[in-house]
Specification:
Elements (H helix, E strand, L loop, with lengths): L1 H10 L7 H21 L8 H20 L6 H24 L3 H27 L23 H20 L5 H20 L3 H17 L3 H22 L2 H5 L4 H35 L13 H23 L23 H14 L10 H8 L12 H34 L4 H15 L8 H18 L11 H4 L11 H8 L14
Helix pairs in contact: 1-5, 1-17, 2-4, 3-4, 3-15, 4-17, 5-6, 5-7, 5-17, 6-7, 6-8, 6-9, 6-16, 7-9, 7-11, 8-12, 8-16, 9-11, 12-13, 13-14, 13-15, 15-16, 15-17, 16-17
Length: about 525
């Protein structure tokens, strides 16, 4: 549990971004990895995809370490190297220790609860302004940023938390209390998600939910996801229409009045969602509501990918339009108008990173070198340390070799996810969907360098590696989920029992003919 609680604890130390918290977290992760080497039956995975995942992270650490030799600022490169060493240690720990049904069953609830705790803490000063007051940054312009100190990172964490809650709420094999808690947690998660005003977080949430529904297309899952979204949307819309709650402006009396109203609506939505979940779970258990799978059309995967492709085309169009446009930097306003605007400084960042890649295609400019490239080529009068995209920044700083190494890591994770979905069709979908949400957002921001967010995804990756590393004698198909209606229970069901209950019944054998 210490491993699963790590990202939540690190969130209250500026997300682990700066050197002190990052170094402490790295030492702790290394100590846990050493302990895992002593107590775990197997430290390294036996599956091919699991080994590729670990090898991809090792190669990424090694290449970043080598790039220090030509990095323009070695201190920044050392910081990237330390961060990746920590990620490697956590990945190995998760793959080695998150084995067995009890440990794997705890992954989603622990990480979802951690995200809810962090987001609720950030909301608390808006709901109780006369009691709590946090430090604010000018760049946030009122957007929800605490305790990570970056609003887009808060949006990404809230999106991942909502995806995990949607899975827990729709998992008929989970306890009713756990499913209810997941829906209740959606109220603060959704409110905080909206108040970050993070456009990339919407793309991450959409990608995660589409993946979840595709991997677990059951009626109970659809009901759970709908409950989570509804419980999250009601307080979010109310808070978004209360100026003092959204912007933190106004007199104390005005902020207290609006904060109290937002808090009352949030509590009411959480209670209503919880009661609805209990009623639905009981109806499913009694057989009044069906939980069987919904038949998806053959081209469902293609249809699910359309919104993601559209988002990518919009971003590409904005890049073409804005790349050579010189503008004056203005602090963005904290209002909903920015959610429908394509204007973004990222297009300028991406253009500079791609120029750096074109100038140094093989090995890049060195880890952490984007800041110097930006100062030399920038078209906006502002400072920037990151290209705001893991994939584009990897191209600019680490070149083709870095992109190849990153591709190895992604391929290993994808292979582990595929194996996990076969072996653990009940537990794997939520983890895979949350990783997809992170991967989507990482392409639009610098989440990779915010450990409190990235470690959530890395723990999920390690859990998928552990799932895919199970012996093939266990049930290896989830097609029974689409053939046979599951019988939900009020108590957690062991994975093997749940899998057998979801498989099609085996025809009875005829008794042997009597011997003459």
């Amino acid at each position: 549990m210490v491993l699963l609680a790590g990202p939540t604890a690190l969130a209250f130390f500026t997300g682990g971004y700066f050197e002190g918290p990052r170094l402490t977290a790295g030492i702790t992760a290394a100590a846990i990895a050493a302990l895992a080497a002593l107590i775990a039956p197997r430290v390294l995975p036996q599956s091919r995809s699991g080994r590729i995942t670990i090898a991809g992270m090792v190669l990424l650490v090694a290449w970043v370490g080598v790039s220090i030799a030509w990095a323009p600022v070695r201190q920044d490169a050392y910081g990237d190297f330390e961060r990746l060493v920590m990620y490697l240690a956590v990945l190995v720990c998760a793959a080695a220790l998150l084995r067995g049904r009890a440990a794997l069953s705890a992954v989603e609830p622990a990480l979802a609860m951690g995200a809810a705790i962090v987001v609720t803490y950030g909301l608390s000063e808006r709901l109780l302004p006369g009691v709590l007051h946090f430090q604010r940054s000018l760049g946030a312009a009122g957007r929800l940023e605490q305790p990570l100190t970056y609003w887009n990172a808060m949006g990404a964490l809230a999106a991942m938390g909502m995806v995990l809650c949607a899975r827990l709420a729709g998992d008929a094999t989970r306890a009713v209390a756990l499913r209810t808690g997941a829906v209740v947690a959606a109220a603060p998660l959704g409110t905080g998600f909206y108040l970050t005003l993070s456009r990339g977080a919407y793309g991450a949430l959409i990608a995660g939910l589409l993946t979840l529904v595709f991997l677990s297309p059951t009626r109970s899952q659809l009901r759970g996801a709908a409950l989570v979204l509804l419980t999250a949307a009601v307080p979010a819309l109310v808070a978004g229409n209360l100026g003092s709650v959204q912007t933190l402006h106004g007199t104390l009396a005005h902020r207290e009045a609006q904060g109290g109203l937002a808090l009352a609506v949030l509590v009411a939505a959480a209670l209503a969602g919880g009661v609805a979940t209990i009623l639905i779970a009981r109806s499913e258990h009694a057989g009044r509501l069906r939980t069987a799978a919904v038949a998806l059309p053959r081209r469902a995967l293609l249809g699910a990918a359309v919104p993601i492709v559209v988002l990518g085309l919009i971003a590409l169009g904005g890049l073409v339009q804005e790349r050579h446009k010189v503008t004056t930097y203005l602090t963005p306003a904290a209002n909903s108008q920015r959610l429908v605007s394509l204007t973004n400084d990222r297009y300028a960042y991406w253009g500079v990173a791609l120029d750096a890649f074109a100038a140094h295609p093989l090995n890049g400019v060195g880890s952490g070198g984007f800041r110097e490239e930006w100062l030399a080529r920038r078209t906006l009068p502002e400072n920037a340390r990151d290209a705001h995209s893991l994939y584009i920044e990897t191209a600019g700083e680490l070149g083709l070799v870095g992109l190849l190494v990153l591709a190895v890591l992604i391929a290993g994770v994808a292979g582990s996810a595929r194996s996990a979905a076969r072996v653990y069709p009940v537990r794997a979908p939520g983890m895979i969907a949350a990783v997809v949400a992170f991967a989507m957002h990482a392409g639009l921001d610098w989440d990779w360098e915010m450990p409190a967010v990235s470690l959530v995804a890395i723990l999920l990756m390690g859990a998928l590696v552990a799932m895919g590393d199970l012996p093939p004698s266990l049930p290896t198909t989830h097609r029974g989920l689409r053939r046979r209606e599951s019988r939900p229970t009020a108590q957690p069901v062991p994975e093997t029992v749940a899998l057998h209950s979801l498989r099609a019944p085996t025809p009875a054998r005829r008794p042997p003919a009597p011997r003459r």
